[in-house]
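Example (one chain per record):
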Amino acid sequence: HPKQIVVRTGYDEGLARRIFGGSDFFWMPSRSEPCGLTQMYAMRYGAIPVVGDVGGLHDTVEDRNPGKKMGTGLRFEPTEKGMRGALSRALALWDTPSMMKVTRQNGMKKDWSWKTAVPAYEKIYRSLVG
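Predicted structure:
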């Protein structure tokens, strides 16, 4: 289907930024993910991450709470059933523009800088040395 799908091999930073910036959702159905950075890039550019609830994805994507204006994305159990549920949740979010906007803004506001990360590491190190 040449007019419906494109496959590109290799990596192009400029193209990646344009894709993130033009996306409403970023789908990452990992079964295992020690850390991952692309979900953070997606949030920065306003694409709402929909991720398998594993490893670093669990640590970096806060599951959207339907009753509150909280959350930066959608997490799901990395199974077929979990993926189907996540797709339904994403479509429901899409149908609620105000919540879509809030979720997108929550992700864009996340601070992934060392300024935020260092205090957490210091706390761990200090607890280890006593």
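Caption: DSSP finds six helices and three strands in the chain.
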